[in-house]
Structures are given as structure tokens and as C-alpha cells.
């Protein structure tokens, strides 16, 4: 649900509702949470680093899953108009100028003005109810995407266990590829996990009444028994709550078929998946994906009218089309993680999604543009100027030809425009970013090892302009390996300063 006046733009909404409160206010700090129940980590949305939920805080009060001391501190900052350092993603977007709309607008407009006023005027130390919750029960995942790590994927963990930590990486965020993620799975069974206990206790004592949206993420949530328990609850109780699930849509076909079947027992189901590139480049970036044979949409072409999925040959695109055509999904969404490699086929992927919109309606393949910042060597800003400029101009030309497409919504347009501006204006992905030379050396060092471990070939997958630059990067030989002890951004880790910022 979006709470804006009819025909009001996001900028007009910001000026009317958000700016009078404070220059840094965001409703997500009060009404939203992403909680990793497998290890007891929490963030107010998907941009800030996670912080630890203390077990002692949830034993007597399960609402402590959301109302942590860290969260209450950042709420006070926003009430005072101060910018929490962990929200640097939005501050960088807003500081570009050009009327850039950051995600704090999108994450605030989903609440009523009464809710926003009560939060802003209320006691920041008080517990508040959740309205939108994203939870992960565990990190079990069949993919090992290049921009992910062992903290969020057991398949990544198996890579590190088998082949050892990635070597010769020193830039900010690189330490994530030098640990096997065991810290992220401290409990052997769900029955032993106090965070899962607290969730179900809170669920039965007020949480299911305050939530308007429950969203499940992973790992790959289709592989979790806890997720199917929620499907049973929604079906049995006929809950009106919006139920959303993130899936890589690359699980075994029986799980995809089960999702299609169970979707018919949920009144308001939205499915989110992830992709930002096309074809073999998508498969390179998201290891484990079988993209499938499917042609990008071209305006006035017969191709976009063809049903391209085949139950006997499962693939990402085929599973997505099957879910839309045969499932009971109110909408489907594609979360695009914008890294340096996806820029070379991103417009083909956008064309394909527009084709889906043409066939099934604009409520499907709604895309969001999320610019990767960690690790910085995978950021688009690690590319040399001549490639970044060429990619910016390519995307800009595509946008000029397509921005008025009737199936594209306001958020999708603003996301693409924001990416174009980002490539043009922003020089570093976040505060304390490592030097460009260090990022670029890590870029080559990582993908050399990634190719060897995963049986891939960077040079055969990407175009000459990128390969020529890749080959020109000097080799790096270092001995020291920095180990990430845990995922708590509020504690000092190797590669971070005392505030949890990358060094």
C-alpha cells in the first residue's frame, strides 16, 4: 500500500510529509525490520549493515527482536535531524542533487501519516510495533552468487571450506570472502534457536495483528520447513496480510511446483526474485543459475507473445514465467543488485522484463534498482572512467527510448535515472572506501579465483572493452588474510573502524 495523494510525485510527497519532520527522518527505522533469525542479526532495511540482537533482550520481551538499543539510538538521531552513519546509501543518493529520490522515501510512503507522526513525536526509547517485517530463518541456499558470501549462503560456505579463503583481497568488504559463515549458523536445530522461539512467541502475541506485510528471505526460503509452516497458517486462517517471499527461483522443480500450488492458498502473495543481467552473464554473476533460453522483448516483435517456459527443462526465466502464468501471485518483483559486471547486459534484461509486462501486466517483473556498495571492488564505481562513461551513455540511450513505456512505473523510472546519475556523479560507493587502485587489483584477484573455483571464464563471458581493461590490471601477491569474526557492524572487526565502517 502506498500512502500518497492522487497524482502526487515522490518528490512532492517528500516535501509535504518527510521534510517537515526532519532532514533525515525515515519511517523504516520504526515500522520496518530485516531480521536474520538463524543468527540473531537485525537491520532496519536492506541497506544498513546488520547488528546483533542480544539474547537476554528477547527472553523476557520478544519485541526486542525489533526494538534493539542500536535501533532506538538511530531513531533518536533521526528525530534530531542527524544522519545515522549506517544509512550512508541514501545520503549519497540525495547528495547527488538532481532531485534524486533515495530509498528512504520509498520506505516511508508505505506508512500512514498518522503512524509517521506518532513515531516522530513519540519516545524513541519506547518499543514500537512492526508494520513490515522481512525475516530469514536460515542461510541454506543452492546458489553462490558472486556478490553474496558464506554468511548468507551455505553453498558459498562449502566453497570456502573446500578451497580455503580467497587470497590477495584487502579492500573494504573483501574480508567477507575469507570466512566460511559458521558464525552465521550458531544453532544446530531450529528447536535450539532462541530467536526463532521469540519470533513465534511474538507472532502469537500481537505481531500477526500489527503486521501489514510479512516477507521471507534466505538463503533460499523454499528450502526451509519454517516457510511452508507459514503458508499453512495463511491458508488456514485466511489472513489478509500481504505475504511476500524472496526466491532465486532456481530450486528443484518440485519446490517451484509446490510454491505454485501453495500460492493458491494465500490471498495476497507477492514474489520477489533477483537478477540484473542477461543470459550467460547472469549465470556468471549468480553462480547456480540456469538462465534458460528466452529472448529479450523488442517492441512490435512476435517474440514477446510466446510462452517460453518448459516444465521438462526448468530454468530461471522458465520458472518465473510458470509462476506468473500458473500461480496465484498478486505481483512479481525483480531486485536488481547493480554491480560492475551487470552493466554489460542490463538493457537486454530490462527488455526481457518489459516483454513480461506486455504479456502479463505491469504488476509483474516490477524492478527495483539497488546499487551495490560492498565489497567496493564489485561496485560499478570500480570501473575505469572510459568504461563507466560508455556504460552510462548506453543505459541513457536505452532510457531515452523506453522511459515513457506505459508498462513502466514511477519507481522503475526513478531507479534507472538514479543509476545513470550515480554512474555520472558519484566517485566512491561509501565513506572510507579503499583506493581505486586497490579496488581494481582486488577485482582481478577475485575473479581469477572465482573462475578457477566455479569453472567459469571471465574472458569468454564479457565484451572486449572489459576484458582488455581486466588484462591490464597488475597482478597482486599478498600473504596476509583478514578474517571476519562475525557480522555485527557495531563491533570492531578486521577491516573496520570502531564505528563499524570499512577501513
Care to describe what's here?
The protein is an alpha/beta fold. Helices cover about 40% and strands about 10% of the residues. The chain has 19 helices and nine strands. A nine-stranded mixed β-sheet has the order 3-2-1-4-5-6-7-8-9. α11 packs parallel to α13 and α15 (about 385-400) packs antiparallel against α16. About 45% of the residues are buried. The model is unreliable at about 295-310, about 480-485 and about 490-503 (pLDDT under 50).
Keywords:
alpha/beta; 40% helix; 503 residues; disordered C terminus
Strand and helix map with partners:
Layout: H1 10-18, H2 28-31, E1 32-36, E2 41-43, E3 51-52, H3 55-59, H4 69-79, H5 88-94, H6 103-106, H7 113-121, E4 132-136, H8 154-163, H9 194-210, E5 213-217, H10 225-237, E6 242-246, H11 253-263, E7 269-274, H12 279-285, H13 316-326, E8 331-338, H14 346-360, E9 366-371, H15 385-402, H16 410-425, H17 436-454, H18 458-461, H19 464-472
Parallel strand pairs: 1-4, 4-5, 5-6, 6-7, 7-8, 8-9
Antiparallel strand pairs: 1-2, 2-3
SSE sequence, one letter per element = HHEEEHHHHHEHHEHEHEHHEHEHHHHH
Structural class: alpha/beta
Low-pLDDT ranges: 297-309, 481-485, 492-503
Biggest β-sheet: count, sense, barrel? 9 strands, mixed
C-alpha-based Rg, rounded: 22 Å
Q: Strands across the major sheet, in which order?
A: 3-2-1-4-5-6-7-8-9
What's the overall geometry? globular
